[in-house]
Amino acid sequence: MAQCKQTAEEFVQSTFSPHVAVLCSPDAELLCQKNNLSFQQLIQPFCRLSSEVHIRDANNVSHSIHGLRIKACDMSSQPLQQAAIRKILSDAVVNAQQQQQQSLDGGRTNVHSFGNYDLHLNASTPWFEAWRDNFLETMPLSDHEYLNTCLACLFVVSSGQSDPLSVFTALGNQQLTQQQQFPNKTPRWFCQGILHYYVLLHDVLDGEQARAEAVYQSMKSTFGGQICHLLQINSRSPSTMETLKTGPSPPDPWSQFLPKPSSDTQEGVDYDGVGAQDDVSFPGELSEGTNEVNPAMLTSVDSSSELFEEQMQSPSDSSDSGVPQDDLFDHPLMPSQTVKSTSVSELPSLDNDLTAAANGYTETGGQSKQMQVSMTTDRKTYGHGCCLTASDQDRLRIFMHEFVVRAMIPWAERQMKLLSDQLTSRKGIHRSIFSATRKWFGGNKPTGPIPASQNTTVVYTKDAPELQLRRLGDLAFLFQMYEFSYNTYHAAKKDFNNDHAWLHFAGALEMASIAVFMQGGSSQRAYPHHYMETAISTYLTSCRNPPYAMRATLISSEILKRRNQYSDAAMQFLKMITEVSQSQDADLSSALFLEQAAHCFICMAPPMVRKYSFHMILAGHRFNKAGQRKHALRSYSQALQVYKSKHWSIAEDHIHFTIGRQSFNLKQLENATSAFKHLLTGESKQPTAQQGAFLREYLFVYKQLLSQEAGESSSYGRLPELPLPNIKTNETKVLLGQPTKLPESSGGSKRTPATGVTLDDQGQEARWAKLEATAVTRKSNPPSSFRPTLQCFSNKTDNKYNPLTFVGEMVSVQVVLENPLQVMLVLSDITLLWTFLPSITGGDQAQLISNEVTSSVKNHLADEIIQTAVIKEVVLTGNQIQPIVLSLVPRQAGELRVVGLAYNLGTSSLAQNAPLTSAAVAADSASTSKGSAASSKPSYISTVCVRGKQRLEVQGPRLNVSKEEKTGKVYGPDRRLDLAVQEEMPILNVTFCEFPEALLCGEVHCIEVEFSNAGTVPLRNVRVAASNPNFFTFGSGPDAELPKSGRLLYRPHRDPSEPNPESAVTQKGDTDPAEQDIELEYPYTYQVRPGEIKPNRVECLDSGVSLNKTPEVTSVPFPGDGVLHPGQSVSLPVWLRGNDIGGVHEVDVLFYYEPVAPRTPVKHRVLRHRAVVNTVESLSVRALATRQTGSVLRSAGQELNTCYIFCELENLSQVQVQRPHIQELQISQVSCASDSWTVASLSTNTLKGIRIGSRETLQLMLKGTQKPNAKGDKLLYSEVPFDMEQIDSTRTPCRDFYQCSVAADRSRETSSQGLSDVSNKAEYRDLEAALDVDLTLIFLWKAFVVQENGQMKILVGQHHVHLHTVNTYVTSYPLVMAPSHHPPLKFYKDTEAEMDESPSADVTTRLVSYSYQHKASALHSFDNGMCVVEVSLSLQNHAKRPVQVLVDSSKSSDRLNSTSSQDSNPASSASTTVITPSPPSALNSPFPLSSCVRWVGHTHAKVTLNEGESAKLNLRAGFLRPGTYNVNTLAVFVTFTDDQSQMILQRQPTPSIITLLPQVS
Asked: For residue 4, is pLDDT > 70?
């Protein structure tokens, strides 16, 4: 907090000090000029007494005087004009700040904490003290007080004068003449009989000591010894002065009392020729007080009084001028002036001439001017007091002490005694006369100030008692008799109040309150603050005297601050600002008062921080209007500490703007740029127009700064940093390789290139890494040393390794730009900045290369090494976030690092900004990202733009492993912008011709794929890994050929109610015209068998590949040596198959390839492609396989190795109007692939075709036959055609998709085996084979699709159904069974689970199948006894291990009930429901129907059956009465272990019926 260097008491004493006039002869002045000083300046440092002196008042009471200070003034000086006074005050403020900046502490600030604020406050305000001291010294004198009048006059004559006494007499006469004839001239005198003091000035080196002593004795005898003094000076010779020039400078006590020279650097000078005429380009909303420079600025003053008066009355004197009056005048008290630049005090005027003529010293004055001119060189060469030794300074000190003690104090005592006596004698008569007058005529007088409209003029004579009383009080106050002076002021104020002498009244109140304060603790009275308030108000309202009101305010505020009444002090300052706002110098004084009020607010308890900052802003505004730009800048900077980062956005913007403007005017371009930079933030709440003005201001200032720096630096440097736009550095992405190309049409065919890697691929690196690992190792689990290829680097990838790129390959960098403002930003010539360290073989040191330098030659060389793309223009609208992509192409191996972004920043005018729509901006951005723009596109590049850069510094992930990393903020490395460039590598390009966007479920489509090598190195060993291997196949061997197209006739589907629709496919030439067949063209996607169609063809082939594992990696069958040379292309057919489930499917395909002769550590490369295919539902197939049971109509043993397959085919498509849809489906063929099973059709007419209309369902039944002699490495292909063409199921693509489907089915079965009820233990696998079927049905079909244009199109496809066990429904699409309900959560004790080592009941109860062979009916005469029928029991072992079979007929009575209750199959239960007609006697029998069957013979039979063996037992059944009987009443038990007690009853629910009829005899 600012503190004055003087206390309040010291300030009052220095303000009200005894004044002494000095009148020197020319020869005495010449002696003083040897020290570059006048006599008045020579004695100034010694005018303060260091010792205590005493004085007696009029009552003969002694008083002590401490630190009495005498003010000496030159009697020959002329009064200053008002303009000169303003010049002095302005210079004082400017110089005080400059001296503070040049001091040792440099304008020291102290840090103070106020709550949440930490403020740097000035320790002092010397500019305010300098202004205050100069203001008090230059105040106009008034007749109502005698504080600033001279009490004495010092007459100084040189001892070298021929007649010193006559000169003393002439000087005394000059003083008397001025006092009597010109009483209003300065200096003014205290009374008529002032003290005359005579000083004989003797030069020790040049003068005669004896003569001086003689003259001094004559003076004492003539004038008196108490008022004469011999002063000896200049004891040092000129040769000694030359020695002092080279040695250390002696102390200079005079410098602090001399006026400071004007600053050479004027604050109001405009920079770079930008004057007031350019001010219109600045925004007007926040433009405050920026005024124009007066073109009529004067640098010298002519000697004529007319010119001087003209300058004094110039309009430039007004406060509205942008340049203060310090630009018009030199300092009036400059110690060194030439004749051409004469000081104001020496300017001839009318009054000066009259005074000189009256005194008879016109010639002497001219000599004085000549001597001043002659000493100009010496003043510049030597310092002050250079001829004075320490003894001389002691003599000066003694001289002042003797003058005060021996002459002035005794004179003051006599004057106080004289005034007191006069008042005592005169005031009594005055009071008696005027009291009677008031009683009769005057009445009572008001006690307070009256309105200013009333006439308050009261004229007192010089000898009036009221003025004598005031003179007595002022004299006592000047000599520190404060109690006595208070009593005098208090008595005088009553008289002034009664007389309505308001100026005198205000002065008495002011001095009375000051006198009480100066008494300190010895006073019994409280400080009368209301006295000072009344005085100030009276000065302003009644007296219209602002200078004295300001003096009272200055003194009162110091007193209040001394008493810690900061609030009252601040209010007085603010009140004074309001009252003096109309004066010419109101801006400067108001600014200083506002600043002091702000410091008062910050000193309060508690501190008022926001009031401090607000009044500092007001002070800065008034400083700016006063032309004090440095102080304005300082004030706003002080206020910014409070408003900064406190969400006072509008106020903060105003402060930053003003700081920037003032810094620019002061040529502080760096500070101006920094201030304007703070205005360009996203949190700005300024309107759009204002933000645009801020941006233009910043660009203009920044351009000036760059021009200045470019002029100062002769070498090429780095680009400057720019604040806009914001770059989200952590969202920067790096893409290695060529960008994705869009599909194109060539020759009527659509060509789709591989998608590769795009900048938008995020979060799927794990999927691609798995595919790459599979392609590299051909295994699902890669080794630990495997590191996948990463082509797109972002903040979501692991960037601890440097990205690897290759010579000649593009590197794309995506940078996200954000415009935080609401105005448009125009970026042009955008390019990446990089540094490159080439790889040099040998011992030579590589030199770092950069493209940031501004040299065109170096940039051309850098572009040859790293080809850098340039984006011509990018337009960012308000608050827009837009990514841009820039590219680099390295031409040499080495280390490449992307360090930043270089661009030109500009803006557009509102006329360009208004019509711009978002669509236009989007189109412009799209074209800009490609690096080219249409010729008709409008350009937004503005005329004011700045070339700069922004750095790209990405931050790695935060580490959180160790304790130090968890407690601190430690970040890992991120090297995505540090690229390693290696030698050339091959580049594989893959293009798909006519790639379909949509497929039917199961549709098979053939396309052409083109492989080409765009690199300079040959490649080989191309492999393909896919996330869905079932999606495509390249074929194998001679089958891998592009299919040809054929033609067929399509006959529209008939009424679905017809029982047997005929085939809709006929050969060409057999078409019935009445049917209106349509001839269609369709591709021969499948291989057709030549020759005659065989309905139940069976072919045995090698399996070729393992069907237990998915073939995730496929080698591309390149012709020849399998090497693809540079520039070579190869086209291969690829068959695609639509997914079995409808919807949008994504298939990731990875192409792996290797260079033939690798020259880099990279051994392989990959190319990615993502295929997106929409599949539409077409055909759904459900199948169930059941074993055939015993029947009397079949031959013995044939049914044991067969099964029946029930198929349900449904057309899931719907007919839609004006949209593509399937008209109908045709089943072309059903093929079976298995290692032991074949299928055959049960229909006798299979070539007529099977068609299924929309939403129709078809039931199809096939018979499967097992071939027990087939080997495991062979596959049996059986085909059942339903069309005129038989498709070869053993060739591409039917066989390939079958193999993929089987592998996928095996993979699903393995993954879900833990949820199956079938035991997966190896020792029971041979038992589980009893339920196995293990065959795959391939349904080949054709779809007749109606397109949008109404034309018909034929598509082909295939579905697969995998049958593994009997009595289980399977579908052609994978079925995931979700649990119907979630059981409640239960907690159990953690016990060891018991392992169930036995196979499941489904397996053990179906190990052996059996059937009965017997007569279907028989005739028998039951009268002759029991009917016995021969029954043959056939047994078949389906397990792959020997079993023991026990046939038990003893439990036949419970067989039917037991089997019915044990069987839970609904189909079985339905099949056992047999209606048997029985006689009435049988219905009343208490036994069930089965009890009528009696087995005759052995009740037990034991048979051992080996693997796959069958056996037959001959049994006899007896019947007691006629009827229908179920012979299946035997109990067949099986055991597969040596333990005979573990016999398992086999399930055989199918009845075997026999009918017995009675024979009529």
From this structure: yes
